[in-house]
């Protein structure tokens, strides 16, 4: 009877420990509110200014968090990426906040990127974005490894450094 009793106690102990682990795992789940972001590539392709034909090649999509809370939590790198061809779409469930979406296309050895800024995911509705490439847009960049916000911050930092260097040069000239 003691063997049966010890087996029962062991089974109850194992059940209690597993139940405790399950409850702790459930309570540690990420309860962050999320919303759907759908990126669609038109079936007929993309009109690019200056080109007589529609582009139906591969488009590389990267989604960067730019809201300060999102950057702090997920970093400044892409939070999601996809390769799309004509008539494809990418559906992502992302935390609420502000994002920047980069659409890139390869032409020869160059990677041209169009940046769509201020994509805001809100709790009240999902966002749908259509792939778009505008060769005359001011936000078209070659490369595309940084967000527009990172580039602007880098330019501001360089301007401050140049201003400090100018002051140092002026001081040296006076001596």
Distance between the termini: 100 Å
Give a quick account of the main beta sheet: strands, pairing sense, barrel closure.
Answer: 5 strands, antiparallel
Q: Provide the domain count.
A: 2
SS elements, strand count = 8
Low-confidence stretches: none
Q: Determine the structural class based on helices, strands and strand pairing.
A: alpha+beta
Share of β-strand residues: 25-35%
**CATH architecture annotation of the largest domain:** Sandwich
Name the helix and strand elements from N-terminus to C-terminus, one letter apiece.
HEEHEEEEEEH
Radius of gyration: 26 Å
Strand order of the largest sheet: 3-2-5-6-8
- Helical content (DSSP H or I, runs of 4+): 25-40%
CATH superfamily of the largest domain: Carboxypeptidase-like, regulatory domain
Structure report:
The protein has 175 residues and is α+β, with helices and mostly antiparallel strands. It folds into 2 domains: 1-31; 34-154, Immunoglobulin-like (Sandwich). It has helices spanning 2-27, 68-74, 148-174; strands at 34-40, 59-65, 80-84, 89-95, 97-107, 110-121, 127-130, 141-142. Strands 3-2-5-6-8 form a 5-stranded antiparallel sheet. The radius of gyration is 26 Å and the shape is flat.
Summarize, please.
With 175 residues, this protein is of the alpha+beta class.
């Amino acid at each position: 009877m003691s063997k049966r009793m010890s087996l029962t106690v062991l089974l109850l102990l194992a059940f209690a420990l597993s139940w405790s682990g399950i409850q702790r795992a459930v309570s540690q789940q990420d309860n962050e509110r999320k919303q759907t972001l759908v990126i669609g590539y038109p079936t007929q392709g993309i009109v690019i200014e200056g080109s007589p034909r529609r582009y139906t090649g591969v488009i590389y999509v990267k989604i960067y968090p730019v809201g300060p809370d999102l950057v702090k939590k997920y970093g400044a790198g892409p939070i999601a990426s996809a390769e799309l061809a004509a008539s494809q779409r990418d559906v992502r469930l992302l935390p609420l906040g502000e994002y920047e979406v980069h659409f890139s296309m390869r032409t020869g050895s160059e990677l041209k990127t169009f940046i769509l800024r201020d994509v805001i995911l809100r709790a009240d509705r999902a966002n749908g974005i259509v792939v778009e490439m505008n060769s005359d847009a001011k936000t078209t960049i070659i490369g595309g490894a940084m967000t527009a916000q990172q580039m602007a911050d880098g330019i501001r930092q360089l301007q401050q450094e140049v201003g400090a260097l100018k002051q140092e040069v002026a001081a040296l000239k006076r001596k």
